[in-house]
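In line with agreed milestones, work has continued on tokenised descriptions of protein folds. One protein thus recorded appears below exactly as we store it:

>
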Amino acid sequence: MRLSTVILPVRRWHDGGRDEWQRAERLGFDTAYTYDHLSWRTFRDGPWFGAVPTLTAAAAATSRIRLGTLVTSPNFRHPVTLAKELISLDDVSGGRVTLGIGAGGTGFDATALGQEAWTPRERADRFAEFVELLDRLLTEDSVTYDGTFYSAVEARDIPGCVQRPRLPFAVAATGPRGLKLAAGHGRAWVTTGDPKLFESGTPEQSRAAIRGQIERLGKACAEIGRDVSGIEKILLTGFTPERSGPMESLDAFVDFAGRHFELGITEIAVHAPIPDSDFAADQRVFERIATEALAQLRT
């Protein structure tokens, strides 16, 4: 069982931003993630900084905690340039980076470069090609690739990642094609639950949906001869019917986490509190969860 956190990039580095990442390390979180967006939902009209520069600064300001994205997507990224940035970030961090990666959606990132938002089918098609090419770029010194959506011509990525054969992927997926990508390329799989249940579902329905997702991941692994137990299973909280309820007290979180660990989830990521937002929470409760929850769950 692991407990991680998500730090949204909304604070200037020298005005509390650095402190949040260093606090996450002191509290003992396994990994500190951030979102990789150009802007996001209710934060669109406020400060929002880039994921890779933020993680690079966090790597220099910490020494033990793992760092990563939840999640990067093809919406405004190209595999060739992303691979170069990730190799550099992995080097600065001393091999502490995990790439959370997903197909993207229809939010602000989808149209910020002037393109029309992609259909669900095109997002899935692009995601499959994106992951395939990025995998090669991070493991081979030189890559030439001519795909439907992405190309590379003798793209050089020397010396490669500190982590071998490359930094790990945590693939966010619930559909059959995405689960196959997670089975084939992921060291970890990411879920936020079933989005259809967020507004009107029950916690019991949500857990049943997550159980079904894990079962389908197992089938996707079995099809390629992989043991699903070898894939870490990450739950990003805040998007299930419980919403912010698990962050109201230590006991509430322990109950929530225990029920999900029983399903097969191996890592839970909670958002660092942001006042006056969907992620508002008592900082003292957040710190108690970080320092006490796992001990209670293991007894």
Notes: The chain has eight helices and ten strands. The mean pLDDT is 97.
